[in-house]
Amino acid sequence: MPRTRMIFAAVAAIVAGLGGWWALSVPEPDRFDQCRPGPRPPGLDKIGGPFTLVSETGETVTERDVVTGPSLLYFGYSFCPDVCPLDNTRNAQATYLLDERGVGVTPVFISVDPDRDTPELMEEFTEYMHPRMIGLTGTPKQVQAASRAYRTFYKVRDPEDEFYLIDHSTFTYLVFPGLGVVDYFERDVGPEDMADRVECYIRAVN
């Protein structure tokens, strides 16, 4: 091969290599960038996963049965004296606001108190919040597996106390079928702000 051609071939190989490196080093654009109040939270793709729980009607369900559309997942318990009712009320209010805009989302309440939260109690709790809210409970092992999948925390303060309280995480996750968790909301996010952001995500998907 003539020297000139060898030089061109070497340059072409270097350029091709740099192009591959550049493609690997540049992150994919965030399709939901306009919906976030800040940068995409790190580790978001590691939150969520399969779970098997028990529905309000006593049926065994998986995440595929529950997350059939945009969903707001919250982990708590019905005997919670303050945090859980407020957070679930906020989620329900955001859902009502979205209903008025013709945007559908399903609020989901997963109990971390399987010993006390029976399907019947979960149904009573969720019906009070929103007619479309889904309440899930299960065995201690099932609940623990679901909590681990979503990287949540919960711990019973005094198991011997009949009226024991549970320390737990308070994030609400926005989940899409096929996409998983796309964002989460902290407690200081109000219902209108939540509704605006959820609507943005849903319209970005559609």
Q: Could you explain how this protein is built, in words?
A:
- Keywords: Copper, Disulfide bond, Metal-binding.
- Disulfide bonds join 80-84.
- InterPro entries: SCO1/SenC, Thioredoxin-like_sf.
- This is Protein SCO1/2.
- Pfam families: SCO1-SenC (PF02630).
- With 206 residues, this protein is α+β, with helices and mostly antiparallel strands.
- The protein folds into 2 domains: 1-30, no CATH class; 34-205, Glutaredoxin.
- Helices cover 39% and strands 19% of the residues.
- It has 6 helices and 9 strands; from the N terminus they run H-E-E-H-E-H-E-H-E-H-E-E-E-E-H.
- It has helices spanning 3-25, 63-66, 83-100, 119-129, 140-149, 191-205, and strands at residues 52-55, 60-62, 71-76, 106-111, 134-137, 154-156, 166-168, 172-176, 180-185.
- A 7-stranded mixed beta sheet has the order 2-1-5-4-3-8-9. A two-stranded antiparallel ribbon has the order 6-7.
- Strand 1 and strand 2 form a beta hairpin.
- The chain starts with a helix and ends with a helix.
- Residues 7-15 and 21-25 have low confidence and may be disordered.
